[in-house]
Design a protein that fits this description.
two-stranded parallel ribbon, alpha/beta, 60s Ribosomal Protein L30, Chain: A, 145 residues
Protein backbone atom coordinates (compact mmCIF):
# COMPACT_ATOMS: atom_id res chain seq x y z
CA UNK A 1 0.00 0.00 0.00
CA UNK A 2 1.36 3.44 -0.90
CA UNK A 3 1.71 6.29 1.63
CA UNK A 4 -1.19 8.13 0.02
CA UNK A 5 -3.41 5.03 0.21
CA UNK A 6 -2.43 4.57 3.87
CA UNK A 7 -3.33 8.21 4.59
CA UNK A 8 -6.77 7.73 3.09
CA UNK A 9 -7.19 4.48 5.05
CA UNK A 10 -6.36 6.42 8.25
CA UNK A 11 -9.10 8.92 7.40
CA UNK A 12 -6.72 11.75 6.50
CA UNK A 13 -8.34 14.05 3.97
CA UNK A 14 -6.11 15.83 1.46
CA UNK A 15 -8.23 18.66 0.02
CA UNK A 16 -6.93 21.18 -2.48
CA UNK A 17 -5.42 24.27 -0.85
CA UNK A 18 -5.69 27.90 -1.82
CA UNK A 19 -2.40 29.81 -1.88
CA UNK A 20 -1.99 32.10 1.10
CA UNK A 21 0.40 34.74 2.36
CA UNK A 22 3.35 32.33 2.52
CA UNK A 23 4.31 29.27 0.51
CA UNK A 24 3.43 26.30 2.72
CA UNK A 25 5.67 23.93 0.74
CA UNK A 26 8.46 24.91 -1.62
CA UNK A 27 10.45 22.67 -3.94
CA UNK A 28 14.16 23.16 -4.52
CA UNK A 29 15.94 20.51 -6.56
CA UNK A 30 14.69 17.17 -5.23
CA UNK A 31 13.65 18.57 -1.84
CA UNK A 32 10.28 19.67 -0.51
CA UNK A 33 10.62 22.07 2.42
CA UNK A 34 7.54 23.01 4.39
CA UNK A 35 6.75 26.08 6.39
CA UNK A 36 5.94 25.57 10.04
CA UNK A 37 2.41 24.25 10.47
CA UNK A 38 0.71 25.04 13.78
CA UNK A 39 -1.75 22.91 15.70
CA UNK A 40 -5.35 23.89 16.27
CA UNK A 41 -4.74 23.04 19.94
CA UNK A 42 -3.77 26.15 21.90
CA UNK A 43 -2.00 26.31 25.24
CA UNK A 44 1.14 25.48 27.16
CA UNK A 45 2.49 21.96 27.63
CA UNK A 46 3.15 21.26 31.29
CA UNK A 47 0.82 24.10 32.30
CA UNK A 48 -2.69 23.05 31.42
CA UNK A 49 -1.92 20.67 28.55
CA UNK A 50 -0.79 17.07 28.94
CA UNK A 51 1.76 15.17 26.88
CA UNK A 52 -1.14 13.23 25.34
CA UNK A 53 -2.81 16.47 24.21
CA UNK A 54 0.50 17.68 22.83
CA UNK A 55 1.00 14.38 20.99
CA UNK A 56 -2.39 14.84 19.30
CA UNK A 57 -1.47 18.45 18.44
CA UNK A 58 1.80 17.31 16.83
CA UNK A 59 -0.09 14.71 14.81
CA UNK A 60 -2.45 17.48 13.69
CA UNK A 61 0.58 19.45 12.47
CA UNK A 62 1.81 16.42 10.50
CA UNK A 63 -1.59 16.05 8.83
CA UNK A 64 -1.46 19.71 7.78
CA UNK A 65 2.08 19.20 6.45
CA UNK A 66 0.90 16.23 4.38
CA UNK A 67 -1.89 18.36 2.91
CA UNK A 68 0.64 21.03 1.90
CA UNK A 69 3.01 18.45 0.43
CA UNK A 70 0.17 16.90 -1.58
CA UNK A 71 -0.94 20.34 -2.80
CA UNK A 72 2.60 21.21 -3.90
CA UNK A 73 3.82 17.85 -5.20
CA UNK A 74 0.54 16.26 -6.32
CA UNK A 75 1.04 13.07 -4.29
CA UNK A 76 2.39 11.75 -1.01
CA UNK A 77 4.04 8.87 -2.86
CA UNK A 78 7.65 8.67 -3.97
CA UNK A 79 8.95 10.65 -0.99
CA UNK A 80 11.42 10.09 1.82
CA UNK A 81 11.05 11.98 5.10
CA UNK A 82 14.42 13.57 5.90
CA UNK A 83 13.92 15.94 8.84
CA UNK A 84 11.32 17.28 11.27
CA UNK A 85 11.64 20.32 13.49
CA UNK A 86 9.12 20.26 16.31
CA UNK A 87 8.47 23.34 18.43
CA UNK A 88 6.51 22.95 21.66
CA UNK A 89 4.96 25.82 23.64
CA UNK A 90 6.37 24.74 26.99
CA UNK A 91 6.20 25.63 30.65
CA UNK A 92 9.63 26.51 32.04
CA UNK A 93 10.11 23.12 33.69
CA UNK A 94 8.55 20.97 30.92
CA UNK A 95 11.10 18.52 29.47
CA UNK A 96 9.00 16.06 27.44
CA UNK A 97 9.07 17.89 24.10
CA UNK A 98 10.38 14.73 22.43
CA UNK A 99 7.32 12.76 23.57
CA UNK A 100 5.02 15.47 22.20
CA UNK A 101 6.69 15.53 18.77
CA UNK A 102 6.39 11.74 18.58
CA UNK A 103 2.83 12.52 17.46
CA UNK A 104 4.18 13.83 14.16
CA UNK A 105 6.95 11.24 13.84
CA UNK A 106 4.64 8.31 14.53
CA UNK A 107 2.20 9.36 11.80
CA UNK A 108 5.02 9.66 9.26
CA UNK A 109 6.33 6.26 10.39
CA UNK A 110 2.85 4.80 9.77
CA UNK A 111 2.77 6.18 6.24
CA UNK A 112 6.37 5.80 5.12
CA UNK A 113 7.72 3.06 7.42
CA UNK A 114 9.72 3.38 10.59
CA UNK A 115 12.84 1.78 9.12
CA UNK A 116 12.33 2.85 5.50
CA UNK A 117 11.44 6.18 3.93
CA UNK A 118 9.89 7.43 7.18
CA UNK A 119 13.07 7.01 9.25
CA UNK A 120 13.97 10.68 9.74
CA UNK A 121 16.21 13.04 11.67
CA UNK A 122 14.39 15.26 14.17
CA UNK A 123 14.71 18.08 16.65
CA UNK A 124 12.16 18.71 19.41
CA UNK A 125 12.51 22.06 21.16
CA UNK A 126 10.66 23.98 23.86
CA UNK A 127 9.61 27.60 23.26
CA UNK A 128 8.32 30.38 25.51
CA UNK A 129 5.54 31.07 22.97
CA UNK A 130 4.39 30.06 19.49
CA UNK A 131 2.36 32.00 16.91
CA UNK A 132 -1.34 32.34 17.78
CA UNK A 133 -0.73 30.54 21.10
CA UNK A 134 -0.52 27.19 19.28
CA UNK A 135 0.65 24.30 21.45
CA UNK A 136 2.86 22.84 18.70
CA UNK A 137 4.45 23.86 15.40
CA UNK A 138 6.18 21.41 13.07
CA UNK A 139 8.10 21.82 9.82
CA UNK A 140 9.49 19.10 7.58
CA UNK A 141 11.88 18.33 4.75
CA UNK A 142 11.11 15.56 2.25
CA UNK A 143 13.27 14.13 -0.52
CA UNK A 144 11.65 13.37 -3.86
CA UNK A 145 12.99 9.92 -4.77
Amino acid sequence: MTPEQKAVELGITLPAQTPGYLNLCVRTGNLLITSGHVSDQKGVLGKGLTVEQGYAAARDCAVKILRSVKASHGTLDGLRVLKLLGCVYSAEDFTDQHLVINGASDLLHELYGKTGDGFHARSALGFAALPTGAAVEVEAIFEIK
